[in-house]
Every structure is written in structure tokens, then in C-alpha cells.
Amino acid sequence: MASTMQTLPAAEQGVMENAPADMALLLSRAFELGDSLKHSAYAAEYIYWKDQVHQDAEVQSLTKQFAKAKEKFAECERFGRFHPDYNAALDHVYAVEGRLDQIESVRKYKAAEASLDELLNDISRTLAYAVSHTIKVPDNDPNPKASGCGNGGSCSCSSGGGCG
């Protein structure tokens, strides 16, 4: 891949009003970025630990137990927390999940997945903010740190209905 510091020709000259994007160049750079990500240490670690998890018989057994426990809990949950087995079913889900989390390959897999996810989110933010800081960027964080329009915080928009 070319240097990550290279910019698109339009960016070097400034944005021209109503100028179409060079889609071929954008797609080419996107594929280069994708190839770089596929060959990165983050992806290699993720794939390695994913394979380790899939080859571990104990993990496979606990995964099946976990799926059954979640199914049982979902059955209880349909009737609400007043179902006689609700708490026991929930405790069983947590117990099996805890046993899974004690296995090294599962812990390393989850850590590698989180690292790769963070890298992808950073790239998404970088690309979006290169266009505009008001673009919403998808994130897997259940507790977003951002504020402003669409994020539950205050913004500088007029009450007329939108940010521009």
C-alpha cells in the first residue's frame, strides 16, 4: 500500500464545490486499505486465536452448554422475572460464561477481537472526520463518549431541526 499519509488529489487542492469523487481511485485505495488490514498483526492475532478457540474441545463443549443455557433463560424471560426458574437460569448462563472466560484461548480471542474492532473504529472515525466532524460514525461501544447531535448530548444546532 502506498504511504498512509498520501492524500487524494482533490484533498490536496481543496474541495471543489459539487465536484464528483473519483470513485475508481476511492475504491482502489479502499481495497489497498483492506489488504493492509488483512495482512496486519491485528488480523493475524485475531485469526490465530479464533482458530485456537474452534479447535479446543473444551471450548466447543462449553459453547454448546452456553447456547442451551441462553435458550433456557430466553424461555424463562418470555414470562418475565417472576418465572420460577428465571434467577436459576440467569445464574447458569453467567456460570457457563464465566467458565468459558477462564480458558486462555477464549480470553486471548476476545482481546484480539477487541483490538481489531478498535482499529477498525479508529479507521472509520479518521475517514469520516476527514470529510466532516459532524458525520456519525458507527461504534460498538454501548456507552458512547461523544456528545452532540444524535448522541444524547447538547449541540450548537438551532431548535429548527438539524445540524448542517
TrEMBL record:
Query: What InterPro entries does its record include?
Result: Bact_com_dev_regulator, Com_YlbF, YheA/YmcA-like_dom_sf
Top-level lineage group: Bacteria
- Pfam families noted in UniProt: Com_YlbF
Xref: Gene3D superfamilies:
YheA/YmcA-like (1.20.1500.10)
Q: What is this protein called?
A: YlbF family regulator
Q: Which organism is it from?
A: Cohnella silvisoli
Q: What PANTHER family does the entry give? A: REGULATORY PROTEIN YLBF (PTHR38448:SF2), REGULATORY PROTEIN YLBF-RELATED (PTHR38448)
